[in-house]
């Protein structure tokens, strides 16, 4: 098992290893103030893993309740968020109790937001079951839901009590979700670790889950400790996301996050080479990995449409938007640009 300790406004551990779901109750017990645990999950994950978690929590002395939402991004909304809070209220949950998120990033984000706001804040645990959630969304305390006008438009920072990632849960992950997670791992490589890129080029991610996830979580730890509230270096994690989020929005969220980010990374890296921020080798390294993991490099949307879809991007302030630009594979910088310049980047990146 690997342990990464995040020292942010709240200090907590991220446990990564095999068989951790069955011992989750014991890991949580010493940290919890009370003895009631409210499990939030989705209808793909709960039928497979709910029973093991429930048993583990009960063996550790917790009483449990469960809220199971339909899977997918469409559930990450104010109405499901409200339903979670109402259920907790009707079951008389109090501020000494805990909420446990069992699932991917959708479950983790909405549960974290419910925990941050229920009775002005109760503790929560992240138990990520997708690769994307394990390497990214379960760590760092970004919580929230989507609004009609865009993704993650309401939320807050709220760090979990502990993150428990049982790598065995990844065995049931569909190939598409595996590749979505790999896109985020390639992102980590591009922003800060050429070694990670080489490692996952030499050997598939699913043959070295613990090592790769621990490296990514440790990179995220460092950025979260430096810049918990996302005003500086943490924004490096948004590499590929300005274009990626615009692609997701244009597709009405039918293109998954990892696939959209993959195309977004390709566009920005190509543009960085064309505009002279990097030589062609960064693009070659990125593009080769995207191909190796069957990830898309292109999207079918025109530049005008992407620009319009980027309007509500949280990475923008007024007319200025911060993009993440590669200098080489494993080294990126933040660059503030305005909207006309974003159009220049899209065109240079090969978007028509
Ligand atoms: P997801 O939660 O929708 O999960 C993807 C699919 O996999 C779902 O259908 C789910 O039911 C299924 N699934 C989950 N675990 C499984 C398992 N072990 N076996 C079989 N099926 C399983 O999506 P995701 O990719 O995990 O997360 C995407 C979300 O995360 C987006 O909403 C995105 O905005 C958010 N996100 C948040 C942060 C953050 O810092 N908070 C970072 C990145 C992404
Ligand atoms: N996924 C981006 C962040 O946590 O900052």
Gist?
This protein is of the alpha/beta class. The chain has 2 domains: 171 residues, Rossmann fold; 174 residues, Dehydroquinate synthase-like, alpha domain (Up-down Bundle), CATH 1.20.1090.
Give structural notes:
This protein has 352 residues and is an alpha/beta fold. It has two domains: 2-172, Rossmann fold, CATH 3.40.50; 175-348, Dehydroquinate synthase-like - alpha domain (Dehydroquinate synthase-like, alpha domain, Up-down Bundle), CATH 1.20.1090. It is 44% helix and 22% strand. It contains 13 helices and twelve strands. The chain has helices at residues 24-28, 46-59, 78-90, 105-117, 131-137, 175-192, 194-202, 209-226, 241-250, 257-274, 280-292, 303-309, 339-348; strands spanning 2-7, 11-17, 36-42, 63-69, 98-103, 123-128, 142-147, 150-157, 162-166, 316-317, 320-328, 331-338. The strands form three sheets. The protein has a seven-stranded mixed β-sheet, with helices on both faces. A hairpin with a 2-residue loop joins strand 11 (320-328) and strand 12 (331-338). Helix 3 crosses helix 4. The longest helix has 18 residues, at 175-192. It is globular, with a radius of gyration of 20 Å. The N and C termini lie far apart (47 Å). The relative contact order is 0.11. The model has no long low-confidence stretch (mean pLDDT 96). It binds nicotinamide-adenine-dinucleotide and glycine (GLY). The site of nicotinamide-adenine-dinucleotide has 29 residues, from helix 4, helix 5, strand 8 and helix 6.
Helices and strands in order:
Elements: E1 2-7, E2 11-17, H1 24-28, E3 36-42, H2 46-59, E4 63-69, H3 78-90, E5 98-103, H4 105-117, E6 123-128, H5 131-137, E7 142-147, E8 150-157, E9 162-166, H6 175-192, H7 194-202, H8 209-226, H9 241-250, H10 257-274, H11 280-292, H12 303-309, E10 316-317, E11 320-328, E12 331-338, H13 339-348
Parallel strand pairs: 2-9, 3-4, 3-5, 5-6, 6-9
Antiparallel strand pairs: 1-2, 7-8, 10-11, 11-12
Helix pairs in contact: 3-4, 5-6, 5-8, 6-7, 6-8, 6-10, 9-10, 9-12, 10-11, 10-13
Bound molecules: nicotinamide-adenine-dinucleotide and glycine.
């Amino acid at each position: 098992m690997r342990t990464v300790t995040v020292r942010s406004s709240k200090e907590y551990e991220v446990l990564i290893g095999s068989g951790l779901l069955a011992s989750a109750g014991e890991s949580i017990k010493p940290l919890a103030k009370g003895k009631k645990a409210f499990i939030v999950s989705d209808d793909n994950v709960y039928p497979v893993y709910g029973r093991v978690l429930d048993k583990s929590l009960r063996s550790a002395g917790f009483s449990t309740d469960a809220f199971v939402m339909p899977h997918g991004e469409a559930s990450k909304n104010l109405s499901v968020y409200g339903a979670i809070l109402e259920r907790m209220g009707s079951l008389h949950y109090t501020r000494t109790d805990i909420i446990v998120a069992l699932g991917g990033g959708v479950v983790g984000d909405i549960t974290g937001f419910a925990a941050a706001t229920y009775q002005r804040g109760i503790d929560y645990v992240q138990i990520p079951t997708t690769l994307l959630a394990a390497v990214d969304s379960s760590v760092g305390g970004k919580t929230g839901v989507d609004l009609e006008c865009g993704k993650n438009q309401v939320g807050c920072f709220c760090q979990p009590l502990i993150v428990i990632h049982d790598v065995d849960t990844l065995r049931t992950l569909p190939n598409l979700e595996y590749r979505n997670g790999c896109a985020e791992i390639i992102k980590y490589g591009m922003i800060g670790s050429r070694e990670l890129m080489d490692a996952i080029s030499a050997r598939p991610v699913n043959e070295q889950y613990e090592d790769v996830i621990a490296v990514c979580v440790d990179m995220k730890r460092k950025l979260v400790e430096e810049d918990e509230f996302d005003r500086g270096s943490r924004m490096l994690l948004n590499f590929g996301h300005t274009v990626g989020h615009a692609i997701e929005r244009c597709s009405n969220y039918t293109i998954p996050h990892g696939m959209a980010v993959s195309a977004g990374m390709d566009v920005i890296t190509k543009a960085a080479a064309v505009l002279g921020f990097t030589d062609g080798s960064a693009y070659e390294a990125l593009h080769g990995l995207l191909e190796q993991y069957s990830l898309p490099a292109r999207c079918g949307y025109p530049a005008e449409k992407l620009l319009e879809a980027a309007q509500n991007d949280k990475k923008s302030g007024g007319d200025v938007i911060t993009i993440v630009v590669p200098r080489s594979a494993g080294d990126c910088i933040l660059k503030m640009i305005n909207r006309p310049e974003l159009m220049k980047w899209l065109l240079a990146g090969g978007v028509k």
